[in-house]
Design a protein that fits this description.
CATH class: Alpha Beta
Structural class: alpha+beta
Strand order of the largest sheet: 2-1-10-9-8
Distance between the termini: 44 Å
Oligomer: single chain
Number of helices: 12
Shape: globular
CATH topology: Beta-lactamase
Strand content: 5-15%
Radius of gyration: 21 Å
CATH architecture: 3-Layer(aba) Sandwich
Largest sheet: 5 strands, antiparallel
Number of domains: 1
Number of strands: 10
CATH superfamily: DD-peptidase/beta-lactamase superfamily
Amino acid sequence: MIDSHACRRRRVVAAAAALALLTAPLLACAPAPSPAQERAPTALGASPPFAVKQRDLWPTEIWPAATPEEVGIDPAALARLSDYLFARHGDDQDRKGQRTNAFLLIKDGRLVYERYARGTTPDTPLLTWSVSKSLAGTLVGAAVHAGHLALDDRAAAYYPPLDREGHRELRITDLLRMSSGLAWNEAYEASPVFSSVMAMLYTRGHADMPRFVAEHDLAHTPGTHWSYSSGDTNLLLAALRGAVGEAAYPSYPWTALFEPLGMTSARWERDLAGNLVGSSYLYASARDLAKWAFLLLNDGVWDGRRLLPAGWVAYSLTMAPAYYTTEIPPALHEDNPGAQLYLNLGDPARQIPPPWPAAPSDTFAAQGHWGKSIFVFPSLDMIAVRMGDDREYGCGPAMKPGCVADRERAFTKTYYLELLTGLVQR
């Protein structure tokens, strides 16, 4: 049911081993965080920031289908989007251009379009990279609903390596909102020597990832500083392990989430210590990933059964409070963090615009490395799953070095969203 660690080790390039000698502990020499203060309880119970529709059909066994015309989608616009996503401007050696392995579109609860490439099929479990984080957050929501833990619980109560000065103030909600305060470097290929996440996944920390994360010092008081962190997600699932118990933990993603949704393709790798690698190593088909999105679109209820607490979706789609007390440079303006989800809100008080101007303000997403995403458009009742394998990108608003000037010849998220939202005849 769960793939072994050996599966992941086969993917690691030989060069990664050399990093073990170079990546000395990177615990920041930051000033000691201020003593923890009493924090307001984290409330659940609010309605989601969109209207929840009544459903007659549920895709537990199979997605019901519809033609584009039946759900108000322009076929010509859909053909243009598909041509863009599957254009071939390079090959599998140079990895240039759009590299879409799977694209799937759901509208009004029905499967409208899907297309696959490079040997992928509707049943292929695809590596999701950081899309995994969003499903990990939902899994914790299922555990909260079952009464195994609560948002304001101290993570140390379930994961003893955090039971030390400063760290024991870290709450479950802080991990969900990537506000642990741990000194963590999320750099990837551009800076592997200084990267905490590369060391966690491939070298010093790979055998027991949560313990490696817990060994990092605090740079900020928990709950006061937002910083994108794969480490926070792996700590989160380590706390989940303690909360549900050793007997239930190995199958918990299936019993609590995947099986009720009919996600038969899902696989989740563990490290050598048996911890689910919530940050990175979930595999699932595009059709099954859309089921996860459909659960959130229906406020955590599936075919009459509530799987997530009332108010969980509203909580997940609320900007992390620490975002407002953290300096956000322009390069990170696109990151609007909810609870293991991306939002489309911006921060007008700091002149930070919504990251996806073509999309409705209620849009949210799970996103992963190399062009993997699940976008949910509640006001359009639409879900778009794209599992990409991009190595270069078109130039967007941030104009990153090395971007491709012609956005038709390399994947650009802003253009993708323009094409997606342009599908709906309004």
